[in-house]
Specification:
alpha/beta, Rossmann fold, two-stranded antiparallel ribbon, 7 strands, globular
Length: about 280
């Protein structure tokens, strides 16, 4: 397929995904979570192109040169395209970098992997800052590969509660302190996102995060890529299966009320949210 035709089809698929799942309305104030990687840069470009009231937010975890280059890229991209960018820092918010937090936890026999720690802390900050900025939607760059991997990981672990929180828009719990998350790349393969990004010549680091080498998701992703060689539709089939079960899962795990963390007062399933639990070990 020629590049021009591919770009047109790619953009139409994302547009159809937004329409199919009713992800965005004309009144929405959209905050796009950007890392400087291909997925988030692509979705920021497309949402800024087609919608009003679009801003970006990036979180610096201070992972050496990797974070520095990504921050440089996304700042340049936003400046060039006149997109307001909000910068958030692990060091400013938590007093430490991701690697320092991980090492301190290990010293106290709390053996969480870097990706788990990073995910918990970033989700916390994204929701907190989206509330402060009065965003009505928080858009992320999760693609079809990400969603198929997440569902399979939850299936292997029999974590139905976590699966209930998946989907093109978030979860089984609705609360005034949760900003709804949307995934416009939900039905788009990662390899297609990368191709689009390269055609558009976006300033992007295509290498994976150096802290993710031991991530279980990498293993599952590699396994699915091997299976894809024999069954090209495998990722889409997994996601379509989940979509058929999604409403049932959401109803099963839906809660009318939700608790709040006694420390930070953000939504939490227990007395203390996972972010405050992590931070308590650092004191």
């Amino acid at each position: 397929m020629e590049d021009k035709e591919f770009v047109k089809k790619f953009e139409k698929k994302v547009e159809n995904t937004i329409d199919k799942f009713k992800l965005i309305t004309a009144k929405d104030r959209i905050l796009v979570a950007v890392s400087g990687g291909k997925d988030s840069t692509v979705i920021l470009h497309l949402l800024h192109k087609h919608f009003r009231n679009v801003e970006a937010i990036t979180i610096n975890a201070y992972i050496g040169g990797y974070s520095r280059k990504n921050l440089e890229n996304i700042k340049g991209f936003c400046k060039k395209n006149c997109i307001k960018l909000h910068e958030v820092s692990f060091r400013k918010e938590f007093g430490r970098s991701l690697c320092y937090i991980r090492d301190m936890l290990r010293a106290k026999n709390v053996n969480l992997k870097s990706c788990a720690i990073c995910g918990i802390l970033k989700r916390y900050l994204l929701n907190k800052k989206a509330l402060e900025l009065k965003a009505t939607k928080l858009a992320t760059g999760h693609n079809l590969d990400d969603e198929a991997q997440s569902f399979m990981i939850n299936l292997i672990r029999y974590n139905l509660d976590a699966s209930a929180r998946l989907g093109p828009s978030n979860g089984a719990v609705k609360d005034k302190k949760f900003v709804p998350r949307i995934k416009p790349l939900y039905l788009t393969l990662e390899k297609d996102v990368e191709r689009y990004s390269k055609i558009m010549n976006f300033p992007v680091v295509y290498e994976r995060c150096p802290c993710s080498t031991d991530a279980y998701r990498r293993f599952i992703g590699g396994l699915m890529n091997e299976l894809e060689k024999k069954n090209p539709e495998i990722k889409l089939n997994i996601v379509n299966f989940f979509l058929k079960k999604m409403e049932g899962l959401k109803k099963e795990f839906e809660r009318d009320t939700i608790g709040y963390c006694k420390s930070c007062h953000q939504p939490a399933k227990s007395e203390q949210c996972r972010t405050c639990q992590i931070l308590s070990y650092l004191k």
